[in-house]
Amino acid sequence: MKNKIMHDTKWNIIDFVTSFIITFINIKVLTNGLGIEGYGFYSLFIGLIATFGLVDIGMGMAVSKYLSEFIGEKKYKDVNQVIEIGILFYLTLGIIVLIITIIFKENIINFLNLSGFYYKLGLKLIVLLPILMTLNFIIQILNNILVAFEKWKIISKINIIFKVINFLGILYIMFNLKQKILKIFVLILNIFIVKLIVSIIIIKRNYNFFELTKIRKNLFFKIINFLKYSLLQYLFSILLGHLDNLIIAKFINLKTVGVYQISLKVMNYLYSFLINIFKIIFPKISKMHGKKNLFKINQYIKKNLFICETISIVLSLFTIVTWKFFIGAYLGSKIANSTYIYILVFLVFLIIRAPEVIYYYYFNAIARPKVFAYSSVIEGFSNFALYILLIPKYGALGIILGHIISKLFGVIFFFIYSKKLKEY
């Protein structure tokens, strides 16, 4: 068992390290090729894919939870139905979002306060985002099948291969093609399509129990009940994590978006490192919950909370000490100095946010998404109030400070709620 955990963790770390190295190099390539303002525009629209993805309203986590539970219990008919529900949901959602985007595309671009070249480019790219969102959702369903079987090596290999392909494609575009930003998003679209096809082939070759089947009403409503609370969580997530670039672009400038994004990307990859290490606990907790092994879950969570927080502190200290040296050598002292205050504040946010990684997997694995719905309400309202208070005085830094304070409220809530669960 321990050997398998170490083996799975090793592949997740390899996946993360590869992604981090590629992203680190990409920042240099993109800032040089597009300029800091162009990089800000690129980052804004990459972030919009995540913002569009909020219409997921928790279906991805519901699919992952019940796939892990039903595969653990060998209920393969239920597995097929969960997959069908997920795919039908995302296809329907994708069509609706695409129609709305086409109708209101000028309003969206005007809201982003873009002008000139970036206004025209934004009108072209905004219609592509719902398509990318839908493809990504369906890829995640297929990925969740592999997660449920705990095939972390296969997942990591797929991720690494397509990240390398994406990186090589960006290099080619930067040095050989015009209309660079548009071509990058077309590249992403093609990669998503190929990744979807490859994922289908891998799953069909390895698992032969998938077939179309009639969806049971009680399973359908079980998932809808899960989404009832996730909907609130995901709506408030817009306030917590996906409006940053929109606010900066509209009320500050694209150059600040670029500076902000460099620091944010580093913090996000440190946070992703934690997610990659600890994502193996989700299918394990789901299976333990299916077997009603509640005491074991509780002990497992306590241990992982301590490990996760310790790792976040070590990563933050290392980043603070080495930031100016590495970023200065790589991107220049001007960018290193302008981003230093941002990374300091982001790392405080990382340390406070770290327990959320464990609590997120924990509460969703035991079918309590309502906990995150409650915390999202607390964080959402407090974050919105803090935006109003802090952004006029501190600008983009006020956004991060708002996240820190509201996230602290959220983590305290997770701790208190976990202690009050009767069966634990």
UniProtKB/TrEMBL annotation:
Q: Listed GO cellular component terms?
A: plasma membrane
Keywords from the named record: Cell membrane, Membrane, Transmembrane, Transmembrane helix
Q: Give the subcellular location.
A: Cell membrane
Any stretches that span the bilayer, and where are they? 12-29, 41-64, 85-105, 125-146, 158-175, 181-203, 223-242, 262-282, 303-327, 339-362, 371-390, 396-417
Q: What is its main location?
A: membrane
**How would you describe this protein's topology in the membrane?**
Multi-pass membrane protein
Q: What is the protein name given in its UniProt record? A: Polysaccharide biosynthesis protein C-terminal domain-containing protein
Signal sequence range: none
